[in-house]
Amino acid sequence: MKYKTQMEAAKHGFVTDEMKIVAEKEGVSTDYLLEKIAIGEVIIPRNKNHNSISPEGIGTGLKTKINVNLGISKDINDMDLEMKKVDMALSLGAEAIMDLSNYGKTQEFRKKLLEKSTAMIGTVPMYDAVGFLDKGLSFIKAEEFLDVVRNHAENGVDFVTIHAGINRQNSEIYLRNRRVNEIVSRGGSLLFGWMKMNDRENPFYEYYDELLEICREYDVTLSLGDSLRPGGIADATDPGQISELITLGELTKRAWEKDVQVMIEGPGHVPIGDIEMNVKLEKKLCHNAPFYVLGPLVTDIAPGYDHITSAIGGAIAAAHGADFLCYVTPAEHLRLPDVDDVKEGIIAAKIAAHAGDINKIKSAKEWDLEMSKRRQKLDWEGMFELAIDPVKARRYRAESQPTDEHTCTMCGAMCSMKNMNLILEGKDIKID
Amino acid sequence: MKYKTQMEAAKHGFVTDEMKIVAEKEGVSTDYLLEKIAIGEVIIPRNKNHNSISPEGIGTGLKTKINVNLGISKDINDMDLEMKKVDMALSLGAEAIMDLSNYGKTQEFRKKLLEKSTAMIGTVPMYDAVGFLDKGLSFIKAEEFLDVVRNHAENGVDFVTIHAGINRQNSEIYLRNRRVNEIVSRGGSLLFGWMKMNDRENPFYEYYDELLEICREYDVTLSLGDSLRPGGIADATDPGQISELITLGELTKRAWEKDVQVMIEGPGHVPIGDIEMNVKLEKKLCHNAPFYVLGPLVTDIAPGYDHITSAIGGAIAAAHGADFLCYVTPAEHLRLPDVDDVKEGIIAAKIAAHAGDINKIKSAKEWDLEMSKRRQKLDWEGMFELAIDPVKARRYRAESQPTDEHTCTMCGAMCSMKNMNLILEGKDIKID
Fold first, then answer.
1. How far apart are CA A424 and CA B186, in angstroms?
2. Which Gene3D superfamilies match (chains A, B) (predicted)?
3. ipTM of model
């Protein structure tokens, strides 16, 4: 069958190569995927021009995926450094990389990335607009924003964040309900600024049909950005955020009518008590479109440790149905992450995703079960093999050798694993 | 009034100096504390011989507290190293330190610790039994275990973990319902071994009344240990764990009859979906006695990162009513933590406690609000002052200087805080 998008194929009952790969990776049937992709609950972001990709599915019934942000910028315009982050992300198994490049040779970097990346690639065309169009923000014409999207689509980008929800109506609702942290979304704040300076409607909202044509042509998945996501605990789940979410739900339906795949971006900074509600509200208002959360960070007071604050929120969100987690590094709120920060962020996000999956994906806990078995047997090599970061686990143990090689220096002779194994075999334990 | 324990004083409506201090620290009334301490929902662990203490309350309506484990052992018998961990714990504001010393000059270490520690001190007398009594585990007589408790109480220990719940009945239930990870509690496994080798009832269960007399005499809080806590996701919330919890609830009532303060220790390794239930079950079966959780770790697959797996579980537990979190360090399951690990563990536990408090303590989110305000103002010095780890936050930012000093290298000119402040003042933003 000739089809434009995975969704179109699914609606016609046609199983694509991508669906076969995803079914295999997830241990689900292609029938399941056909049904879920047709109704928008599952997406397979895969631009027809991204040849190096190993496709992944995102959505209901599938494992939670994680995304890594990187890219060249004015302050740190070092392509090699960012490529090192790419290598780190790929080696640690991140399913997606967002190239947030916003200054310098962005297209060169993007093309290099698309050539090598097995992970899906996302971008925020808004960040690249000023550089690509070579004119100041306020001077960009509404239609020109689409030229940036078209260029990214041609390059092979699998999904694009588009802040189409911060339209005039939602801007007014936001302005009537001011916040401690105003609009913290970079793309959202730039669009809000552009709208104010030009007294115009949001160009992505105004030209949404044209945008959908571009996405349909290359099967670019729309990641509908939440410009009004809360940037502080005090602002969580406020009128602006929720009114924008309603608009994103409307835009989701319009995209699906044109067979364009969609996911919805979510908060942000959210207290633990609000997270489940936020996931359920997205699923309801956006018709079960996959939910891509940026955190959520469960407190504002831990700069330097926001990989942990977001792992807490991400795990809870994933457990309740969020499908895709954007990593956050220890550098968040302080500076651009370095390669070590990227690693810390990826591991924390993977832990969060897996901890959430234990709650919703039947097979997820098999990994834990196997680790627990090896732990009881004091099979250290076996534990290292299964560890989320075998290198760190090995190094930690090597740094501190126990007298009894079967135990570790935490408990030594009092090792409960060792002692219980003896007692349960009817042997005595000796502690003296 | 002459009283033996805080609980006795509270039952008679007498406000102790400790209650006054705790009321001041928590922003609650002494009337509130009197009511809650009298019924066992709040405890103030404070041995009458621990003079350096700055008392803290644990329980309903009070901020979630954290505990730091350390102590000398056979493999790493370095008193200076452990004292550095003590200094780290005190400087970072940990409210409790458990001295798990189990080899060497344990009493000397314990006395030094009690002399200097403003934090409450807990111990597990079981760990110290072999050394203190100077005989092999299997040769210790039932009554002799009490001698160790008495010594710790005389020294000034504020709370002791006692594994009185792993009695014959619960051992049998456990043996009928075997696990992937058997008895992972160190003290619990040693007692189980002792019981098997000597064919005797659990000495702390058998001599529970005598134990209560010691606790009452010095106002030592009983921390009733959960020997059958799950040590792997597969074992969570199983018959052994819950039957022991029922016993701990019975023992709680017996302690309260003698005015002995009690808290209940909890799991362990628990999937996210079981955490709220575990907290509610403890509150129900143990009559709202404060809940002290050891984690919970939400996955088994992340050795090297268990400060994160436990921060996720700890935050969720605290949000649902757990009162006291035992820190877990990155070294868990691999080796004894070093000083850096201790720091990482404390920060992660403090983040978890605070994230949970946002959900249950009205004043908790004021810290986040103030941070968010300073963030919007790009008041970097102000943010550092409020950061949970000002040193790391400062270092991170200093490592990477932005062109525009008001922003950071993450977003540079695209800083949403800066741009929104300009736009909302009616000014143009320039991105070019």
1. 15
2. 6.10.250.620, Radical SAM ThiC family, central domain
3. 0.97
